[in-house]
Amino acid sequence: MIPKKSPARCRLLETASRLFQKRGYSEVGIDEIIEESQTAKATFYRHFPSKDKLVEAWLCAIHDNSEERQEKIINAEGCPVQKIANAFDGLSDYMIAHDFRGCPYSNSCAVTESGNELIRQQIERHKESTRQFFHRISQCILEVRNEANLLGDRIFILYSGATTEAQNLRDLWPIETAKGAALDLCEMAKSPAA
Q: What is the pLDDT of residues 109-147, one digit of tens each?
């Protein structure tokens, strides 16, 4: 059995990640990944029996990093509303760092064939995890779980929409606007008249 963290596997995954993030996984071939990572073809197939398995590993790695960032936000000092603001600020930083390429999951979903169940499961897993992240924060704002989850869903939709439009327009204003709307929703939810 090959160790999960072998240098060749890491090199292949890092190369694929860079290329997929830059151009999208459907535009990058296995031969290019092998050449750029300076890895033998047999080594590639020993670690990843197919391109789909590589894409699945790539999405899984992004998901793990995202969950780490979410846990840092949840566990940081500050009120829940500030934590929501921090999530949107982190999204702005991500978009700048990745040249407005947007969400790898949404981008992958757009080009994934309906029969590719493993990749689709990774996409759904990540989106649901992000939704649950906003539920967790919202449950610190509202005591009634159903109301908190509805608030979390609204914020999740703002976050997802902002990601898409920031990518489309190559600008941060959609994220800033969505952040303002999310914070307004939080304030309205906290007010007695809500």
A: 766 665 578 888 888 999 999 999 999 999 999 999 999
pTM: 0.86
Helix-helix angle 104-111:51-75, to 10 degrees: 150
State how far the alpha carbon of 84 is from the alpha carbons of 3, 39, 60, 155, 161, in Å: 38, 42, 24, 9, 15
Pick the CATH number of 59-190 from 2.60.40.1120, 1.10.357.10, 3.30.43.10, 3.30.390.10: 1.10.357.10
Give the CATH class of 1-49.
mainly alpha
Residue 3 clears pLDDT 50, i.e. is over it: no
Our CA dihedral for 138, 143, 145, 146, rounded to 10 degrees, sits at -90
Q: What CA–CA distance (Å, rounded) separates 95 from 102?
A: 6
* The pLDDT of residue 120: 85
